[in-house]
Each structure stands twice: as C-alpha cells, then as structure tokens.
Amino acid sequence: RSKVRDKAVDSELIYSYAKVEDLAALEKFISHPHSAILDKVGDRLFTENLFASAKIIFTQISNYAKLASCLVRLEQYQEAVDAARKANSIQTWKDVCYACVDAHKFRLAQICGLNIIVFMDHLHDLIRHYEIGGHFAELVNLLEQGINLDRAHQGIYTQLGILYAKYKEIKLMEHINLFWSRLNIPTLLQACKDNLHWKETVFLYTHYDQYDNAADTMIQHSPSCWDHEQFKGIIVRVSNTEVFYRAINFYLREHPLFLSELLIELSPKLDHKRVVTTIRLSRQLPLIQQYLLHVQRDNINVVNEAVNELFVEEENYASLRESIADYDAFDQIALAQQLQKHELLEFRRIA
Description:
The protein is mainly α and 351 residues long. It has 25 helices and no strands. Helix content is 72%, strand content 0%. Helix 11 (154-167) packs parallel to helix 13 (185-194), helix 18 runs antiparallel to helix 19 and helix 20 (272-281) runs parallel beside helix 22 (301-314).
C-alpha cells in the first residue's frame, strides 16, 4: 500500500483489521484519506457478524440505518434508538423496536413504536409482534400514548379499542364513549362480539344507526346488556316491524311488568289486532290493560272486546258501561249473552 492507492488493497486492509479485531488501527486508518469502498466493506463485515467493526465504518459514512442494525446486535439499544432517529426510516424504526421488545427494553421500544404506529400499513405488524411475545400491557400502554399524537389516525383508536376488548375490558366502554366518532365501528363491533362485550356492541350499533341489530342484541343477550329505558329509545327507531313483535315476546317472557309501557311507546307503529292476538294466546291480557285503554280511542274491534273482557273479569261494571257507551265496535250480541246470566245485577242490566 506504500507504493499504490488501490480500492481492493485498502478494502482488504480494513477487513483484515476487523478480522483480527484491531479496532483502534481500523478507526485510525479510515479517519485518514484512503481509497476503500467503505459501504461494501461494512456490509461484508455485517454479514460475517463483525458488528463492532461494522459499527465504526457505518458511523464514519453516516449510514444510520445500518448503524442501528449493528447496535441492536451489540445490545446497545439506547444508541440504536438514537441512530434510528437520525435514519428516520420506517424499516429501521421497526427493526430497532422489535429488537427492544425482544430484549424487554419497553421504554425504548415505545419511543420507536410511536414513530411506527402513525403509519396505518405498519400498525398491524407492530401489534402482532407485541402479541406474539405476550406483552399485552406494554402494547396497550404504547397505543394509549399514540392517541395523543398529532398524527393519530382512525386505526390507532380502533386497534386500542380492540386491545381493550381482548385484554382490558374495564376501559372499553369509556374508550368507546369518548372516541366513537373516530373509530372504525364495523371493525371494533366484530371484536366486541368476538369477546362477548354486549353492552359495548349495543352502544356501537346505535351510533352506527343499526337500531334493528342493537335491539336484537339486547333481546338475545339480555342478562348482560338489557336496560329498559335504553331499549325503549332504540326500539322506536327500528325500521323492521318484525323486531317489534320479537320485542313483545321477549318482554312477555322476561320483563312482563314493563310490557304495557313498551307497547304504549310503540303504539303508533303496531298492528293492535296482532298484539292482542299474541297476548291473548299467552293468557296475559291483564298485563297490557294500560296499553289497551291507551289505544281504545281508535275504536278497534279486538281492542274493545279485550278491554270489555278485562272489565268483566274485574267485575268493574262502571268502566264496562262507559266503554260500551263510548266505543261501539265489538260483538254486542256475544257480550250480552255472556252477561245475561252474570251473578251481579249490574252486569245483567248491561246485558
């Protein structure tokens, strides 16, 4: 080399210093003028796992992406994060982040992760890596920090909701309440259903204007998500009328004392004849007396007959007399025949 400046000679000399681990001589050589192709030598050293030597070369040529790769293999994680910050490449951030996670350096991993999750395309890869390692709490913590970023996007809010559904359900409803407008609702809905969070499922359906599904969910999973006032608010917005009758059967089965109130709420949309027939088959007409009186103003045959039948059972002749005077749409002959042999004088007079 004292006679000729040649790329091959200089490169091989650097490689020789590295091979014998004479790092001081290597550093001194590359700090002076030379003809070596440092990036090629650095790659060769990296391939042969001579990371300490490769680190010196990549530092010299300011190749921060490859420097970061060397540093994580040398377990110099703080320096690797600093190099990744200078490289500012998504792949470098990912490499350093995953190495920090695997080494349980979660504070440093979070620094890297915050630079990854702002890219929707790479968010799922990061989540998968944390989950495979079983680092659920650290992953949740990372995304909780992520929603405070200026570049936070829908994916971060949605994935944090999914993680709450899987691993931290106590915070799920609060998260949905605060950020429902920023979520990808169909995606989070599926996660809530998969993890059996029915209250949250109902909430998301109502904010996605799918009231039919919200009502059906409440009916199917009533022990965990039914609330009378909330159900009334949802059922009046349902578009499929068959849901009304499923709701009536549900209330008849599980919440009979609230049935009349529900029917009054729905009365403008119901087929009253069908309702009376359904309740009569279950022999529970007294449960809906308030509803029947509420809709009797429409003077419907089956409603009038049901009301009159209840008054007869109660032996309430005053109300019966008032009913048949005000509403004439009923089978008068049949009622007269029923009352003509009644043990109470007032009913025989009505007959």
